Amino acid sequence: MPLPVFLRIYHAIKDLPFWAQRFNATGQPQVHPLQRQVAAFRVLAYGESHDRADENVRLSRSTIARAVKLFTEFIVDELGPHYLRPPWPPEIEKFIARNAERGLPGCLGSLDFSHWEWSSCPKAGAGTYQGRDGRRSIVIEAICDEDTWIYHIFAGSPGSLNDISVLYQSRMYMDVITGKWPPRDFSFTVNVNTRTLLYYLVDGIYPRFALFVAPFPNPGTLEQRTFNRLQQALRKDVELLFSILTARFHVMLHPCRMWTVPQMVLTTQTVAILHNMVVEARRDGFLSRSRSSHYGADAAGAEADLGGGGAGAGAADGAGVGGAGGDDGAGAACAAAGAADGAGAGGGAAGGAGADGADGDGAGASAADGSGAGGGAAGGAGADGDGAKSGAADGAGGAAGAAAAGAADGAGAGGGAARDAGAGGGGANIGGRAPGVAGEAGHGGRGGGAGGSGAGDAGAAAGGGLGDLDGTPDVPPPALGAAAVAPMSEFMRILMATGEHKSREEHAALRKNLCGHVFSQRGEFLAPYLD
């Protein structure tokens, strides 16, 4: 890990109650914050047991275990809303432009799954978490870009589930079928056909949804073989990501010794956040950037526009790191060596919370996407930084929602337009510092995610969950048990079948257009991947 990243975390955490250095009754100083932080890093980086680091930091096993737990909670709560979030519109534009250079215009990134073995799985859950290889594990879903920057991660599903079953549980999938994701205000052209539905690269096991592009299962022509070669070359970004995570953080390389799934989820998210911080500090020197015309001399300025912190110890922190604990939006005070909060990678700061009451157009990068600031309104639904939208979620998403596959185009199928309040309680939102990140980094559209303390005009109403009904007079307790077989009307069966058929047609048409586009310029696109 780069030293500036380590020091940035240290300056943010050293004054918190558990980490601050104390003095005993005789006036002698006790444990230094660096001892606890180094112990937590050694557990994550080397996969050590909690009593192994005693030789280096001279702490007991119980102290190191508590340090690791509090460290993961701090990283997820304070840095998660910035480092595990959906990409902002300027970032999406760069993804599209860069992937168009690589040969697949309209691509948002690569999607894949991995398993993390769980050696401390209780016997009562052995059947639930045991996979086909006989080992007990949890499943991790991740989406990354060319730089292996993770902007979606979902962990905690039992290892007995296959990738498709885990996909159907993911918050990202829920946002897709409700029309909140992907955004439909970006267009790309393939073989003179203009499309607005962005897509992810996946392997052949995934459903033929319109937002997935998989290789041809049995390529029979030279065009199909050429397309498969390029698609697999670009999809290796996410395969490389899992290799980097296990090489950089050995806690994920070895079977997990933790006793609970929530602690495993926290550790997974912490590893993803730390990985993103390392990528942020080093990506300007990546080889892939030297091949692109979109990452040139103005890269530093572009990073500042996106609210990303610089690599140095005095780098700006668009999301806030804690320490002094900011109070508004996404811009908290960064305690790292005189950082300029919310100003991106530069010295002169535009205040941590942006313009007071701006609708996302504030000067500070932390005021973007409806995070808002101070006493002013945070842009209502907090959409693209243009103020409040008119009320419907991106892509017209209806509250009734279309069928699983059919609604991938973002067209809703029912009444009541769903506001940009995210889906469900407890997800990490874009605008605001929602402390709850239960199981995944929330992917909720453009507005404030539901639940927690998220900004957004419906956050408070949606965040209560079923627990708010307990003890309410004249209101029966909520029914938490699911029916053995969910009832489904004949109309819904027809709707689902129609939607699935339409999604398959869109998938085939997009893949055919991309196949012709890649084959026509195969010499240029495949050159970087030839031996």
SSE string: HHHHHEHEEHHEEEEHHHHHHH
> Nearest-angstrom radius of gyration?
23 Å
Query: Percent of residues in beta strands?
Result: 5-15%
Helix content: 25-40%
Poorly predicted sequence stretches spanning 5 or more consecutive residues: 297-472, 478-486
Give the overall pLDDT as a whole number: 71
Total helical elements: 15
Profile the largest sheet: 5 strands, mixed
Instruction: Measure the end-to-end span.
Output: 31 Å
Tell me, briefly, the overall form. Answer: globular
Number of strands: 7
Sequence of strands across the biggest β-sheet: 3-2-1-6-7
Look at the helices and sheets and give the structural class.
Answer: alpha/beta
Please, could you describe this protein's structure?
- By secondary structure, the protein is an alpha/beta fold.
- Among the domains are: 3-82, no CATH class; 89-289.
- The protein has 15 helices and seven strands.
- Strands 3-2-1-6-7 form a five-stranded mixed beta sheet, with helices on both faces. A two-stranded antiparallel sheet has the order 4-5.
- Helix 2 packs across helix 4, helix 4 (61-83) crosses helix 10 and helix 9 packs across helix 14 (490-520).
- It is globular and about 80 Å long.
- The model is unreliable at 297-472 and 478-486 (pLDDT under 50).
Give a brief description.
The chain has 531 residues and is an alpha/beta fold. The protein has helices spanning 3-13, 33-46, 54-57, 61-83, 89-102, 126-129, 163-169, 171-177, 222-248, 261-282, 287-290, 299-305, 459-463, 490-520, 522-525; strands spanning 107-117, 137-144, 150-158, 188-190, 193-195, 199-201, 212-213.
